[in-house]
Input
Amino acid sequence: MKIHNSKSSLESTLLPFKKNKNSIGFVPTMGALHKGHLSLVKKALKENDCVVVSVFINPTQFDNPADLEKYPRTLENDLILLNSISEKIIVFSPVASELYSQNISSKSYVFSGIEQEMEGKHRAGHFDGVGTVLNLLFKAVTPSKAYFGEKDFQQLLIVKELVKIERLPVNIIGCPIVREKNGLAMSSRNKRLSKEEFEKAALIYGVLMKVKEKFHNLSFENLNKLVEDEFKKSDFFTLEYFEIANSSTLKTDVVKLKNIKYRAFIACFIGGVRLIDNMALN
Ligand code: AMP
Output
């Protein structure tokens, strides 16, 4: 398996593929890999002639320095996992100054208003950071297809907007959420949960399932109340937001509209760990 720390060595490795007009699949990650990431990599391997996986913890997308500092860093293990899937994977793991050059800061983006909802409201500058780093990564990797998890559903919509804004010739592919046995969405942040917290965190999936079951019978107001009440009952969690939103615009509606696909979105804290999840409702 080839591991590149510089854009120039990555470019030399990719040159023969480009000359032969081979397709390049790309999976951007921040490392601490788990089966969710690996599902994206496996799909990319099936659909492309070569696959690049980036492992880069992007400083510009963290609004909270403590969160950046505590983000798990497990590169050695990540490489073992990737190698166990395929020795052909090309890994790109630059330091920030290599990817950004001198100016490690974000561009300002307007992603059709999607950036102002949910994660955008609660994590100042987050999507500017995501847009900036992905623009740089897409330019370095020049992928034909790039794979993103529905785990970060808002991010997936943002990336689809980004490639239009930056006119990047890449196909963005959304991939389903991979869950633990107890329903908790896999996340690098789960590594920071105690055993008890990990077990309790099944509540998030449980609540989303309940909302899905009751979606056709209850109003938005009552569905929101149901979730708030579930969280009030638990000492472990702090609910940051729960929203049922149009899955294309991420805007909320007062009443259910015909022919609109809705999705439930949740962000909460358990201990000091912030977890997000979402689920299609209809
Ligand atoms: P991250 O390393 O957290 O930035 O995630 C890298 C990519 O993996 C993103 O596109 C995520 O949406 C995706 N991802 C993370 N967790 C999961 C999961 N449980 N299921 C599917 N995709 C995931």
